[in-house]
Specification:
With about 400 residues, this protein is mainly alpha-helical. The chain contains 17 helices and 8 strands. About 50% of the residues lie in helices and about 5% in strands. The longest helix has 26 residues.
């Protein structure tokens, strides 16, 4: 929360008149005779409303919002969003998306009164985002955030309900019916591509890829794996991540670890129970050891320890989903560089690896599980509440349709 919204305005005495007052949003509001129960109750009411409606709670009403500007509404909503869009005290990516969407509104209509923000304004924002090259799904997501801004204002009684009702009539962009480009569908990554990438990955990251491919876990769940989160009492281990994507919905997430995945992570469980199994610091230390082993000339005294006492960016103790993705991208570039060099020496066109990212491993696992065991099994192992979400991850297996067509077609 911002400093302004975290301070409670005081109960003050206006000496010339003997009345109690409180200063809200730069304006003085009188509560009655100072020290009386009535004035204190009025002060409590004003503070309670100010806590949920910080934009001039004493004077701004839905029928008198013509003087409330869009930028004032955005400032109040961001105060609320900074406290709402966080998990375990850390702001989530949703807060970044909110700020990005509201920036467009502020630039185009910040100085306009809220009462003048119409569906045509929202359509103009959609058009601007589409003309900038944004994908259709991104434009629709930003449109939804803007609608939530005004819906929140209605709930705080600082925006007339008619404005949100009007904005709700604006539909999202439809496929093939707008100039916004379509985003690429995330597809499973081929097994051969993953196998060709593994030799170019650091050993620790390669094991992360193997573990994710076998379990179908999310990249973030792989990065935060700790020994204390793994129940090894049965033949199939269960891994309960400390934090996961849907925990704010009150759902439990269990990653089932079979024998092959157990063999991958077994060496990483021999550490402090609270430490992350996959550590960039350990990976970097292993890389330095391998560099020394490959060295052909003697190490000079001045080269024995070149580590800085206070490096600007020291290796972390745990990967993030972004650093995990970057490690995979670097390995693909390294593999393709070697393939280009070999093809150049042989005088042929190089056969390059296609780019892929860790989340595609989850799609691959889902597709394989669905093919062998059905949609319900894929839903349970991926941790989805609804099967229609699983269908986004698990591509339909067309082999059954081919077999049917072969027999009856």
């Amino acid at each position: 929360m911002s400093a302004r919204s975290s301070l409670v305005p005081g109960y003050c005495l206006h000496k010339p008149s003997g009345r109690a007052y409180v200063r809200l949003c730069g304006k003085v509001v009188y509560c009655g005779e100072y020290g009386t129960d009535e004035s204190k109750r009025e002060y409590g009411r004003l503070i309670a409303e100010y806590a949920v409606r910080p934009v001039d709670a004493a004077t701004k009403k839905p029928d008198a919002a013509s003087d409330l500007t869009v930028v004032e509404l955005i400032a109040a909503y961001l105060d609320y969003a900074q406290g709402y869009y966080q998990k375990n005290g850390v702001p989530t990516r949703s807060l970044y998306n909110v700020k990005l969407a509201l920036k467009t509104v502020r630039v185009l209509y910040g100085s306009n009164p809220v009462s003048e923000f119409s569906p045509l304004c929202l359509l103009a924002i959609q058009e601007k985002l589409a003309s900038q090259g944004c994908t259709r799904s991104y434009v629709n997501k930003q449109t939804g955030i803007i609608k939530r801004l005004f819906k929140w204002g209605v709930s705080r009684e600082i925006v007339p309900p008619v404005i949100h009702t009007a904005l709700s009539t604006v539909e999202g962009l439809r496929m093939g019916r707008s100039k916004a480009r379509e985003s690429r569908v995330v597809m499973p990554v081929e097994e051969a591509v993953v196998e060709a990438t593994l030799p170019h990955l650091p050993p620790i990251v390669a094991d992360m890829v193997r573990f994710q491919r076998l379990t179908g876990a999310r990249p973030g769940e792989v990065c935060q794996l700790r020994p204390c989160d793994v129940d090894r009492s049965g033949d199939v281990w269960t891994y309960r991540p400390e934090h996961h994507k849907t925990e704010h919905h009150g759902r439990e997430r269990i990653v089932y670890v079979g024998p092959q995945a157990q063999n991958v992570i077994r060496p990483y469980l021999l550490r402090d129970a609270q430490d992350c199994c996959f550590s960039p610091a350990e990976s970097e230390a292993q890389r330095h050891i391998e560099q020394r082993e490959r060295r052909r000339t003697p190490v000079q005294p001045s080269q024995r320890d070149r580590r800085k006492a206070r490096p600007k960016q020291a290796p972390k103790t745990a990967y993030t989903k972004d650093s995990y993705r970057r490690a995979v991208a670097r390995a693909i570039e390294k593999a393709n560089a070697e393939r280009r060099k070999e093809a150049e020496n042989m005088g042929i066109e190089p056969l390059l690896l296609s780019r892929w990212h860790p989340n595609q491993l989850r799609h691959s696992a889902a597709t394989e599980i669905r093919r062998q065991f059905g949609l319900e099994a894929a839903q349970v192992l991926l941790g989805h509440a609804k099967a229609d979400v699983t269908q986004i991850y698990a591509e339909r297996d067309s082999r059954l349709a081919v077999e049917v067509a072969r027999k009856i077609g």
